Amino acid sequence: MRMNLIVGLMVLCGLQAAQGASFDCGKASNFAERTICTVESLSLIDDQLASIYQESLLYSSDQEALRQEQRDWLRSRDACEADAICLQREMSDRHIALLGIVQQQGEDQQRVAPAVSTQSSSHSLSPATAVIEQPLVNPPGHNVTTQDLIPESNSSQLGSLAAEPIIHTAAYVPPMRGSDSPVPNFDVPIEATSNGNDQSMLLKLALKLTAVALLLIVLVSIWLHHDGRLTIYSDYTDAAYTSAAPLIGLLVYWLASWLEVPEAPAKITGIVVFAGLMVQVVKSTYQQNGMSGRFVLALVTKMAVIGVYYIIMAVLLAGMCSNGRKKGESQRAYEARCRREAREARAGMVAVTTGFVFLSGWICRDKQFTDFGRYLKP
Questions:
Q1: DSSP sequence for 175-206
Q2: Burial grade of 236 (CB within 10 A; 0-12, 13-18, 19 or more)
Q3: DSSP, res 227
Q4: pLDDT at residue 111, rounded to an integer
Q5: What pTM was computed for the model?
Q6: Boundaries of every domain in the chain
Q7: How far is CA 213 from CA 114, 131, 161, in A?
Q8: HSE-up of 216 (CA within 13 Å, CB side)?
Q9: Where is the signal peptide (predicted)?
C-alpha cells in the first residue's frame, strides 16, 4: 500500500501594531502633526504610511523623485489648517498613491524575473509552505501510523506545537488597479472633532454678537455726539492721543526687546505704558461727559473704533505672503504672488488709515488742536 505523507512547515509571525506617529510628537509644530499625535487612529495610519513609503523607497528606481513627491505631500498635508476632514482626505489619498507605487514595483519585478518551472499540482502552494511527497511501502502485517514516521527526538516538539493554537497570518497584498475592492477609509473619531467644532461655532457666534452690539453702541454714540448730548472726542488732540496709545505701547515693547530685555518683562513694560496712557483717556472722557451712561457710551465707542482699526492693520500685516508656496507653484510664481499680496496689503492699510483718520476727525467736538499740556492737566 502506497501512502503520501505531506509535512507542512508553518512559520508563525507576530505582527507588531503601530504604537504611535512616525515622528516625534514632542516636536509637533502645526495643526496636522498635533492632530495626528492626538487622534490614535491617525497616529497609527501615519506610522503605516511611513512604513509603506520606506519600502517603496527601497525598491524605487528613482528615489529622488519619490522623495520630492513625499515632500510635496507633506506640504499639502500641513496646509490643512484647523480642518480635520482635509487632513483625513490627504492621508487617504497618499495611502492610495503609495499602494499604486508598491503595485507598480511588484509588476516591474515580475516582468524582469526569470520564469521558474514548477511541478503541476492541484493546489497552489505559498512560498512559506513546503510539500514533501515520499512513496512508502507498507510491510506485510504492519500498519504504518504517523507516529512511526516521526523521529523520537522530534515527537515531543511536534506534540507541543500541536497543542498550541495555530495562528494564521496573511501577507499584505496591495489592491489591484481596477478592482472592486474598496480603499480603506480613515475616519477621524467623532469624539476628537465634535468638541472642537462646537467650541468653534460658539466662539464665532459670540464674536458676531459682540460685533453687532459694538456697532449699535457706536452708531448711538455718534448720533448723541452730533445731537450735542455726548462728547466722544473733545478735539483733535484728544483723538490723536487716544489713537496713538496702543502704538506707543507696542513701540515700548519693541524697544525693550531690541535692548535684549527678556520676553516677559518686555511685554509687561509695554502693557504698563499702554495702561498708563489709557488712564488719561478715561479721565478726559469723564471730564467731558460726567459720571453717567453717556460716559460709558463714549468710552466704549473710543475703544471700539481704535480696536477695530488696529485689528484690521494686524490682519493686513499678517496676511502678506503668509501661506507659503502652494502645491505645484514655482519659486518665481511664489515670489511674484508675494509681491502682489504685499502691494495689496499696503494699499489696504493706506485706505483703512485714511478712513480711520476721517472718522476720528468727524467725531471731534472742536475741529482744532489744543495745547498738549492743557489736555494732560487734571
A1: PPTT-SPPPPP-PPPHHHHHHHHHHHHHHHHH
A2: middle
A3: T
A4: 72
A5: 0.48
A6: 2-111+140-163, 191-376
A7: 79, 83, 77
A8: 6
A9: 1-20
